[in-house]
Amino acid sequence: MLELSNATHLLEENAYRYQLQDVEEPKLFRDVYGYGELPKIPFNHRRVPIAMPEEIVITDTTFRDGQQSQEPYSVEQIVTLFKLLSRLSGPKGIIRQTEFFVYSKKDREALDRCRDLGLEFPQITTWIRATKEDFKLVADLGIKETGILTSCSDYHIFKKLKMSRRQAMESYLSAVKEAFNAGVIPRCHLEDVTRADFYGFVVPFVNALQELSEEAGIPVKIRACDTLGYGIPYSEVALPRSVPGIIYGLRHYADVPSAMLEWHGHNDFYRATANASAAWLYGAGAVNCSLLGIGERTGNIPLESMIFEYAAFRGTLDGMDTTAITDIASYFRRDIGYDIPDNTPFVGRNFNVTRAGIHADGLLKDEEIYNIFDTKKFLNRPASVMISKTSGLAGIAYWINENYGLTGGEAVAKSDPLVAKLKEWVDLEYENGRQNSLARRELEEKINEFAPGRFSN
Predict the structure, then answer these.
(1) Beta bridge partners of 185
(2) ∠ Cα 174 256 204 (to 5°)
(3) How far apart, in whole angstroms, are the C-alpha atoms of residue 273 and residue 292?
(4) Could you give phi then psi for residue 148, rounded to 5 degrees?
(5) What are residue 385's DSSP bridge partners?
(6) At 266, phi and psi to the nearest 5?
(7) What is the pLDDT at residue 457?
(8) Which of 53, 178, 308, 405 could form a Cys-Cys staple with 258, CB 3.0–4.6 A?
(9) Sign of the CA dihedral with 100 first, then 115, 346, and 439 last
(10) Are 309 and 77 in contact (CB under 8 A)?
(11) Low-confidence residues of the chain, pLDDT below 70?
């Protein structure tokens, strides 16, 4: 029969709905995921259309998944990070939601204090066990939406839960009914979707969820979770690893509106950001991230990376205050004691710092030559150089100008006698066996020795 598609608004054939395949043995895709071999990327050359939603947003899991991989945050730390998230999100709420645990007294105190701030964004949601008691707890707290775990691969259904597919589905649907009875919007986390039998379990399960939702008159959200980072963003990759295929399938065969569809990825194969971008491109309305990518094992999608992906896709930041990213990074270092690798994009100490003299020479002439964008404007971090044995005259001159804020006619050229003296000293340091870069204090002391009173900070 023909039906008008909610996704494409076209008449499409819909002769049948995918039915649950309640197999006796688990489908583990051993040709792709041979445990004693490296995972393979299968292609089937099937293309699905790009379908970027009208509205795309970011959701945050810093206080949920982000806390599962390190020492939990204190209440004060959660409140501070929540305020920074709100500032970064901007007036349109591009960082739309953030999720909290609610089990401990500390969890609930943090949630209450963040809610008492009266900030519109990010909206507060929770993550709970799928039990009647937990749904009541969420409802009593006045939270409108909560995440629940609905593992969907046979690795989890057969090996972890010790259930059949039908038993798992019935258990999940029962939990969703409890959410509806409590008046809470359930967000079903399709754990391990990139190892799941997509048309044999995932689509039939989501179709059943949609039917329950329609009966209850309460929406249900779907979060596709790439639990082990197996997702592939390339076109024409076969399921279950295809991010385009997963998002397309959920929209086209399970009728999930983009506004109700979310992607949650991990970075085990360095694809977290690329997979999240693909999810947006093919129809997911939201991507779920954490600050600095902190999360299980290799981490989640770095939230800050998707801020710049958003701007790249939309051509605008839509009011997001990206200088908050630098303040977030500083807070993690200074107050939380988190060690951010120096070469981490956007937040590492050295992400826009060069040591090479030839690069510094380019920066001295025009920083646009070697800087990715105006990092002073967007991150409150000007392009910088680090003085080492490869810095050369240009690197030293650039460092002096940046350190002392010298511009125009006051700027020091690489032909300045002071620069030559400093280079002689730097060269001698490394000839005598020095290995590490020179610290700011060392350079300032030497400048004061060679040119007393010439500069002041």
Answers:
(1) 145
(2) 50
(3) 12
(4) -135, 150
(5) 354
(6) -120, 165
(7) 54
(8) 53
(9) negative
(10) no
(11) 7, 15-16, 355-364, 456-457
Query: Which residue(s) pair with 100 in the sheet?
Result: 126
170 Cα distance to chain centroid? 32
Closest CA to 203 of 255, 149, 163, 275: 255
Query: What is the residue type of 421?
Result: K
Amino acid at 376: K
**414 touches 396 (CB < 8 A):** yes
Cβ proximity of 362 and 370 under 8 Å: yes
Convert the pLDDT of each residue in 318-355 to its tens digit: 999 999 999 999 999 999 999 999 899 999 988 888 76
- From the list 283, 293, 412, 437, the residue with the least C-alpha distance to 353 is 437
Rounded to whole angstroms, how far apart are CA atoms 277 and 287? 8
Burial of 142 from C-beta contacts in 10 A (0-12 / 13-18 / 19+) = exposed
- Contact residues for 437 (Cβ-Cβ < 8 A; gap 6+): 355, 386, 387, 388
Of the candidates 60, 92, 97, 101, the residue with the CA atom closest to the CA atom of residue 303: 60
Structure tokens at 75: 């209440």
Q: Return the number of other C-beta atoms located less than 10 Å from residue 77's C-beta.
A: 16
Q: What is the spatial distance between Cα 121 and Cα 86, in angstroms, rounded to a whole number?
A: 6
Structure-token pair, residue 314:
């939309």
> For residue 395, which amino acid is it?
G
* pTM for the predicted model, two decimal places: 0.89
Length of the chain measured in residues: 457
Find how far residue 171's CA is from the centre of its chain. Answer: 30
Per-residue tokens: 288:
């779920």
* Residue 207 token pair: 């179709």
